[in-house]
Amino acid sequence: MAGVSSAAIAEGVLSDGLARRRDLLAAGVHAGWLRRRLATGRWWEPLPGVIDATGASNQIHGWLRCGLLCAGEEAHLSHRTAAGLHGLLPTPRPGDPLDVTIPHGATRRRHPLVQLHRNRRSTPRDFVGGLWLSTVAATVVDLADQVCLNDLRCIAADAVRKNLTSPGQLQAAKRPPRGGAEALRLVVEELEAGAASGGEAAYWRAAVQRGLPRPKLNVQVTTRNGNRYMDGLFDDYRLGYEIDGRSVHAKAEAFVPDLRRHNDIQLLPLVLMRFAVSDVFTALDDVMAVTEGFLLSRAAELQLPAPKFTNARRRNGASGRRR
Fold first, then answer.
1. What is the pTM of this model?
2. Domain ranges across the chain
């Protein structure tokens, strides 16, 4: 009879097959009955203190709930885990390590699959699909000292391009970790200048720091086949540029339209440079040298004063290396 009673109690506590051990015991489930269930493999404990009665932890939603249950009250998913759920990084899978933020001062048992972050300030949160997680803006800010500068550029630009957040919201979300404050400042400035991708942001930053004429970003031009966009344009020199990534531009649905767009732009009275985003991230000196050569050539062709370059390279702004 005691076993039936414990089963009935447990059924009322379990939510989608998951519950904290302490909640089951507090509700009246007999400790010995629970131990036997775990010992025989009918139930299991995927994370410390979390009981799975149905295999819910083998699905991503259940696994995420396990992380929150393990971290306790007021916990929310954050950092890389939240970025994955917002579509800014690969979606986490069952068994992947989880990033969870808890209130400052809270004590929790450490576990290799639950990376705990503590925050002195209240973090803006969203409640999505029954899960608490950091807002998009707060997530990007959290990552400011977790990823290298170029990765932060890509993540932030992706979030803004998808209308998930804005440069202003990133700036106002909360104070970033000490190590990420400068990186976040750079990224927000690049986004406000009009960068729509990490490659565009890195290129614009390098051009500005080297004293090149400041390019306009995502410029619309009128061609014989309608309006087209270029990633950037040195307007006075009628010198445009495109920064192409294999993950987007090599896709069948993008490849042919891109070729047509580039040909339409080339028929205008301007010159179009093309760079691989991988070169912008890993061979930026070479990319800038090519750009300077084009600018000097265009100045001569258009009979304009030759631009002066400082060739200054500030490591924290032009480089994407991890700090």
1. 0.86
2. 2-57, 59-192, 198-316
Burial class (CB in 10 A: 0-12, 13-18, 19+), 226: exposed
Radius of gyration of the chain (CA): 26
Whether the CB-CB separation of 115 and 79 falls below 8 Å is answered with: yes
pLDDT tens-digit series, residues 284-311: 999 999 999 999 999 999 999 998 887 6
Q: How many residues in total does the chain contain?
A: 323
Residues 6+ apart with CB under 8 A from 177: 142, 144, 145
DSSP string of 120-172? SSPPPEEEETTEEEE-HHHHHHHGGGTS-HHHHHHHHHHHHHTTS--HHHHHH
Architecture of domain 198-316 in this structure: 3-Layer(aba) Sandwich (3.40)
The residue to which tokens 């991988």 are assigned? 278
Q: Which residues pair with 77 in a beta bridge?
A: 100, 133
Residue 243's SS3 state is strand
